Amino acid sequence: MRGSGSDAGRGAVMVLVLALTVAASAVRPGVANSGVPTSPVQSASEPNPLSRALRIVFSQRNPAVTRVTVLELRSVGMGAGPYVLLGWGIRSDLSFKGRFDDELFGVFIVDSTLTRIVRTLDIFPTQRWADYIVSIEKLTDSEVTIVGAGSYGDQKLRRVYKLDAPK
Question: How big is the CA angle at 133 (ends 127 and 138), to the nearest 5 degrees?
Fold first, then answer.
């Protein structure tokens, strides 16, 4: 029996989700394939250049932020790049010291090889310590919309960034 068009569409979506999950696990430092954190801080010889780039950019804003990960990575060019990366960084000890900028979110444009940050669109502090959810709501050829909120739906955030290079 052949699947309906919607079953075929769901199958394609599942393959895409699986592919993105595998790709994301390859760029998430400190997380094994099982999803269990391995080490919050990687050495300078960290094998993933994108994770290393995130760590450098976040630590320039706040040297206490050394634990980083990729939250979302989406292609602007139909899978050929460039990419928009939503990153997250926090103090390695995960303790709140009274500074919200000890937990940062960043929106970046990444090259097609997924090895370097081409441009930083924004880096901003959390609005709720270790209890803030940020995601890419919409991505077009010209802009990306980022949304965020605390886990209770408070401290809402919505920002739109232009993807074209500033003149």
Answer: 110
